[in-house]
């Protein structure tokens, strides 16, 4: 089967199903697993070259609505009558459902069911660990520095925080992505800060920039040097790799 993925999280679902060899083309930002970097690139995920997709003669395109603006790709594929499966997971449970759906779509329903169950089993293992913790530190996730954007209630990072035995500092805000400011974060005074600037490699994120913000040197997280620069690829994509991010976060917090 010839599959095209036009979103990194979709590519990672195919990899989780151990079917990377079916991929014949990917968007410009798909970078995992390593072998997909050799595949034809079809443009940035918000502006896919539909003609280039058609030239690959895919049996199925895995498209996405995970980022506003991706609707244009979906319409372009529909106009060309190119078969597509549209994914838009917003939670860990929905990622598990998508693993099953992709398994069915590529002719491997039993394998999709098995891998989805493995995904959910690991989640439940971490949930049990989290439930056993009496004290749950607060995490402030910084997606973007100015203006500040941070995940809220409707985002998978609130779930990841809970599974790591913590509480998302903005987890009670209804929006999936919350816009706020430096003073609001300072007043909430998190125990830990997780820097995951979207589209920015971790080596280009400097924790000293946070220390220079007005009043931030008095925050618990900064006083105790609990600033964690993390790979946005492990936390900002709705894919099975969120479990890899969860494992890493758990190690950072408790080892």
Keywords:
255 residues, alpha/beta, 4-stranded parallel sheet, 10 helices, 11 strands, globular
Could you characterize what this model shows?
With 255 residues, this protein is of the alpha/beta class. The protein is built from ten helices and eleven strands. It has helices spanning 8-16, 50-55, 71-79, 92-105, 109-131, 156-163, 182-188, 208-211, 220-223, 242-254; strands at 3-5, 23-26, 60-64, 84-87, 138-142, 144-145, 148-151, 167-168, 177-180, 192-195, 227-229. The strands form three sheets. The chain has a four-stranded parallel sheet with strand order 2-1-3-4, with helices on both faces. Strands 8-5-10-11 form a four-stranded parallel sheet. It has a three-stranded antiparallel sheet with strand order 6-7-9. Strand 1, helix 1 (8-16) and strand 2 form a beta-alpha-beta unit. The radius of gyration is 19 Å and the shape is globular.
